[in-house]
C-alpha cells in the first residue's frame, strides 16, 4: 500500500498555499509536480557534475556522459524494453512523434495511403499526421469512441485496410481517462503488416507498461508528466523500424564523419539524437523514474484506482455536472461541464480561489471536443500524491461554483 504521507512529504510544493488555501493540485494531466530527489538531482548536476556529454576527454564530461547515458537503461527498465538501444532520448512526446512522422512516415507514404487514428488523440499525435495529409495526400481515418468514452479495439482493427501504413493511437486519453487495449490492436496490426505508434504520455504515469509485451513499433513518453523535468522524454522505436528511419534533425553527435562532400552517421540510437541534448533534464528524468519504480507502479496504480472510483461516485452525485468518459476502469482523469451554466474557464477560476488547480479548455484535443459536442471542459487529473480529501475539496469547490453560476 502506498504511504501517502511519505509521498506527499517528498513533494515540497504540495505544502504551499494558493489564494490562502492549501494547494489541491489536480492539473497533473498537464504536468506533474517534482519530488525533492529530482530537484536535488538537478541542483547536484549543475553544482558539481556539469559538462557537455559525449564530447570531452575530461573528468566532468565523462561523469556527465555516464549519468546521462545511464538514463537510457532506466527508461528501458521502466518501459519493459529488453534492448536499451531501442530507446531514443528526446525532449518529450511531441518531438518523438514528429521524429517518426518526418523520419519514418514521410519517406514511406504516398497520396492515398492511410493513417488510422482514434478521435481522442492529443494534437501531438494528430498534427504531425496532418503534415502528411497536407504535403503528401495521405488520408487520416478516424475511429470514434462510444458513449462511455471506450474505444473498441476491434473498430480500430477493422479500420486497417490495404492502404493503411500506420496506426497511431493513445494508450490512455488525457481527457476521458479511457485506457486503450493497445496490445490487441498491435497483435492484429502485426498480422496485417501495419506498424503501430502508441502515445504513452499519460499511460506511463498511471499504470505499469511493458512495451515488449504490447508489441508496438513506437512508444512515446514525456518526462514532465512522469514527475521529471520538462524538456525530457524518450521514444521506443523497434529496431526494425529504426533501421528504416531517416534522421530527422542533423548536427553534432549523430554523425560518424562529415566532409565537404559526404556525411556518415553514428549507430542508432545516437543517429537520431542530434546536438547538445537536455542533459540535466534527462538526468532528472532518470531519478524520477527510479522514484516511481521504488514506490512501485502497481502500488501507484492501485492508489489511483481507489481515487478514481471515489471521485467517480462523488461526481456522479452532482446531477448538474456532466462528466465525459465513464468507463469503469478509467484512470483518475475527469472532464466535466456544468449544465446550463458557466464556461469551463469561469468554473476553474472559482476552483482556483479555493486552492484547487484544474485545467479548462480543449486540452489539445480538438477532434474529441467536436465528437463530444462541447467547446471546452474542466479537467481534474490526479496523481500518486493526491488523496480522497482532495477529491472532497474538489467537490466542495464545484458546489460553490454551482451556487454562483448554476
Ligand atoms: N499526448 C498526450 C496524451 C498528452 O497528454 C500530451 C500532453 O499533454 C502530449 C501527447 C504532448 O506531450 P508534450 O507536450 O510533453 O510533448
Structural description of this entry:
It is a single chain. With 406 residues, the protein is of the alpha/beta class. The chain folds into two domains: 4-30 and 296-405, Aspartate Aminotransferase, domain 1; 40-294, Type I PLP-dependent aspartate aminotransferase-like (Major domain) (Aspartate Aminotransferase, domain 2, 3-Layer(aba) Sandwich). The chain contains 15 helices and 17 strands. Strand 5, helix 5 and strand 6 (139-143) form a beta-alpha-beta unit. It starts with a helix and ends with a helix. The mean pLDDT is 97. Residues 92-94, 122, 124-125, 170, 174, 199, 201-202, 222, 224, 364 line the site of pyridoxal-5'-phosphate. One of its GO terms (biological process) is cysteine metabolic process.
Percent helix: 40-55%
Return the CATH topology of the largest domain: Aspartate Aminotransferase, domain 2
Principal-axis shape equals globular
Determine Rg (CA atoms, Å).
22 Å
Low-confidence stretches: none
Widest sheet, order of strands: 4-10-9-8-7-5-6
Number of strands: 17
Distance between the termini: 39 Å
Ligands = pyridoxal-5'-phosphate
GO molecular function, one term: cysteine desulfurase activity
InterPro entries: Aminotrans_V_dom, Aminotrans_V_PyrdxlP_BS, Cys_dSase_SufS, Cysteine_dSase, PyrdxlP-dep_Trfase, PyrdxlP-dep_Trfase_major, PyrdxlP-dep_Trfase_small
Pfam families: Aminotran_5 (PF00266)
Cofactor: pyridoxal 5'-phosphate
Amino acid at each position: 500500500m502506498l504511504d501517502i504521507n511519505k509521498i506527499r512529504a517528498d513533494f515540497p510544493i504540495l505544502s504551499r498555499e494558493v489564494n490562502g488555501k492549501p494547494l489541491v493540485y489536480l492539473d497533473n494531466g498537464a504536468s506533474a509536480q517534482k519530488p525533492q530527489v529530482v530537484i536535488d538531482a538537478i541542483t547536484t548536476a549543475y553544482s558539481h557534475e556539469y559538462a557537455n556529454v559525449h564530447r570531452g576527454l575530461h573528468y566532468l564530461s565523462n561523469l556527465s556522459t555516464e549519468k546521462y547515458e545511464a538514463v537510457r537503461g532506466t527508461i528501458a527498465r521502466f518501459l519493459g524494453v529488453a534492448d536499451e538501444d531501442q530507446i531514443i532520448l528526446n525532449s518529450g512526446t511531441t518531438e518523438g512523434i514528429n521524429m517518426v512522422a518526418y523520419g519514418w512516415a514521410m519517406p514511406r507514404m504516398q497520396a492515398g495511403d492511410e493513417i488510422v487514428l482514434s478521435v481522442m488523440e492529443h494534437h501531438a499525435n494528430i498534427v504531425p499526421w496532418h503534415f502528411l495529409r497536407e504535403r503528401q495526400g495521405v488520408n487520416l481515418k478516424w475511429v470514434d469512441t462510444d458513449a462511455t468514452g471506450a474505444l473498441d479495439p476491434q473498430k480500430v482493427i477493422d479500420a486497417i485496410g490495404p492502404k493503411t501504413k500506420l496506426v497511431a493511437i493513445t494508450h490512455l486519453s488525457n481527457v476521458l481517462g479511457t485506457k486503450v487495449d493497445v496490445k490487441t490492436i498491435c497483435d492484429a496490426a502485426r498480422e496485417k503488416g501495419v506498424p503501430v505508434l502508441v502515445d504513452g504520455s499519460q499511460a506511463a504515469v498511471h499504470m505499469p507498461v511493458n512495451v515488449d509485451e504490447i508489441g508496438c513499433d513506437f512508444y512515446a513518453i514525456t518526462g514532465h508528466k512522469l514527475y521529471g523535468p520538462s524538456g525530457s522524454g524518450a521514444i521506443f522505436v523497434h529496431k526494425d523500424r529504426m533501421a528504416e528511419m531517416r534522421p530527422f534533425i542533423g548536427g553534432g553527435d549523430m554523425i560518424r564523419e562529415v566532409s565537404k562532400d559526404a556525411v556518415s552517421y553514428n549507430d542508432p540510437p545516437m543517429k537520431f539524437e542530434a546536438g547538445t541534448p537536455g542533459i540535466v533534464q534527462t538526468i532528472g528524468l532518470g531519478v524520477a523514474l527510479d522514484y516511481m519504480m521504488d514506490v512501485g507502479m502497481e502500488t501507484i496504480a492501485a492508489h489511483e484506482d481507489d481515487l478514481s472510483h471515489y471521485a467517480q461516485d462523488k461526481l456522479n452525485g452532482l446531477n448538474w455536472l456532466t462528466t465525459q468518459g465513464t468507463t469503469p476502469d478509467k484512470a483518475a482523469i475527469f472532464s466535466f461541464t456544468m449544465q446550463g451554466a458557466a464556461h469551463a474557464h469561469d468554473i476553474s477560476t472559482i476552483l482556483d480561489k479555493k486552492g484547487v488547480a484544474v485545467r479548462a479548455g480543449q486540452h489539445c484535443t480538438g477532434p474529441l471536443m467536436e465528437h463530444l459536442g462541447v467547446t471546452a471542459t474542466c479537467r481534474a487529473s490526479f496523481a500518486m500524491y493526491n488523496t480522497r480529501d482532495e477529491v472532497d475539496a474538489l467537490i466542495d469547490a464545484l458546489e460553490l461554483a454551482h451556487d454562483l453560476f448554476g
